[in-house]
Amino acid sequence: DVVATVSEAQALRAAIGDFAAEIDLQPRETELVILPEELRSETVFRLVYEIEFSSNQPAGDWLAYVDAKSGKLLKRKNRVHYTDVAGQTNADVELLQSGDPQQRRSIRYADLFLKDGDETIAKTSSDVNGSYALTPEVDGTYTLVAPLAGDFGVVMNNTNGDATPELTFIVDSSLGGAQAVTWTDSNSLVQDRDAYYWAMFSRDYIKAVDPAFDLLDYPMPIVTDLVDNECNAFWNGIGITFYPAGQQCANTARSASVVIHEYGHGITDFAYRPFTPSGAMHEGFSDYFSATILNDPIIGHGFTGPGTSIRNIEPDRRVPDDVVGQVHTDGLIIAGALWDVRKELGSAVTDQLFHFARFGYSDNFDDYFFDFLLEDDDDGNVYNGTPNFAVIVDNFKLHGIGDYSINVSHEKLKDSEDTSKSFDFTASFLSIFQIDASSVELHLKTERDGSTTTETHAMSPTGETREFTYNLTPQMEGTKISYWFTSADTTGGTSTYPEGGEEDPFTFTVGVDITPPTIAHTPLSDQPVDHDGISVIAEVSDNLELGVGDVLAQFTQNELEPDKFELLPLSGDRFAGEFTLKAWDVGDLIAYSISAEDLASDANMALNPEKGDYSFEIVNGVGRNFEATDGALVADGGTWEWGAPSFFLESGASGSNAWVTNLDGPYDNNVGAELTMGPIDLSTWDKAVLRFNHAYDIE
Predict the structure, then answer these.
(1) What is the torsional sign of CA 51, 56, 61, 65?
(2) DSSP character for 458?
(3) Chain-centroid distance, C-alpha 178
(4) CATH code of 416's domain
(5) Domain that holds residue 198
(6) Quick one: 197 and 118 in the same domain?
(7) Per-residue pLDDT averaged across 439-456, rounded?
């Protein structure tokens, strides 16, 4: 039915009927339309008048809908949007220490609410400059509520029952103009203002260094005036807490450096998770964070009175002379090194290196120093120097931080029965300083037929990074070679490798081999009757360069006919095999031993154990080694795969195969990954123990 029973004039009167008589209304357009309206679970279509009109006081562009059958006003909306409640949020804060003349500063990221009674009409937050704007849909008189809280921090005064300070104002949006929100001594506590201001300042400082760092972008608790405490402050994993003033100390929330220091703990904590640096690094990083923001090496100005402080990172403390085993004191060493670098490179460069070097997750000063150099590196090879190498090394070395030794890497030569082959002695010499190529030498002591000769040979670069080699001509049978390396860097540092040099050298022999292999094996405990294979793992190595030949496991079941199976190489010296039991039951006793032969011209054999056997019993239980099958496990979530891993694992715990979250790459981020085995009926068991092997590599 699209026939109106109410006239346009009647509809217009309904649309404007409750406006004050003095308001200048100007009707513009009236039209019959169909208006869909949701009622409970169905849509109702109404024939309505759509009426547009404007007003000058207040300014309005009105749209109204009047039922064309009943003449009832259904809805009316002013399409003029206002920015009527706007202004600046400021606070009087202390810029360094308790008692300083207060300065007015912008309060950033603080929440502001426009309320009509208990109903929130509009919500916003102040920007980095403290500006805000709230837009009500309809003009009126409202309450402006401004807590000292926002998306990145919430002040909670513990002495006041963890209450968040809050200011309120009565505002009339129709009047326009600005409404300043100003926190002063007349309406708030200075410790609350100081703590919020410096926490937000710290947040913005680290965001300027690392814009992607959002791990602290949550309403962090900023607790002030912790009851029954004094003279301290702390980071507790989620927020920062400050103590009230005591007889001998200032309120810690009123110290800019203390607030920044504690916020710095939060940055380090979240940057390192799930790892953690040493306590001294944690403290030193926070001290430096405060110092670089304030451009002042002193921490805790005026803490126990005028002219006093808590710490000063300026003095050149060093390892090991100034290490006392107290984290705040020891932290001054790393903080001092960073401060000295900053004095030469400036805050912009140093703060970048300081912050991003933490993502190397080092837990000691020396490793952090190397991460610092890696962060400074610009070509993927820290060993050829970095843009700021000299400044960084000089200042960290001044504080006794850094490994400046020459680290030698070399795979020891093995014995040989081949008198026709030559021998390559290859080693890499790594140091943060340049290696003096002319200093790299191989020292040989040759013993044969009762005579000994000693020679020194210069080694030649291979073309690989700091790798050198020397080729020794074939040796006669019965020759014993002892050898060691020496080298020097361009600063005069020297190295002998092995450290004992001639007194404790590497050795190998040329001639008939009579030394058997070495077998390392952890004896098996009792094994479950419900299993898909019982694995034997052994580490087998030999002195001869040819490696290991056959590795076998011999076993008997219940002292019956002996049997055997082969252990095959997995990776490195690791060998694995599986018992070939044809049938088994609870109570069966398995005795076994492992043998290995080398590849000498006259093979040498080793046994483990040297005498007798290991043994285990078949017991009630369930076990899976995942070699032949996936064990019927059910994967839920993540990218579980069963097979031979090729990423960070060289093999499974029981042989080649395992269940892995991605066989050939890292696990997926932000997923829950579960494996389910069973159900297993334990109703007849007296007790049960769950044992499993696992490995992980996380960042």
Answers:
(1) negative
(2) E
(3) 44
(4) 2.60.40.10
(5) 81-257
(6) yes
(7) 97
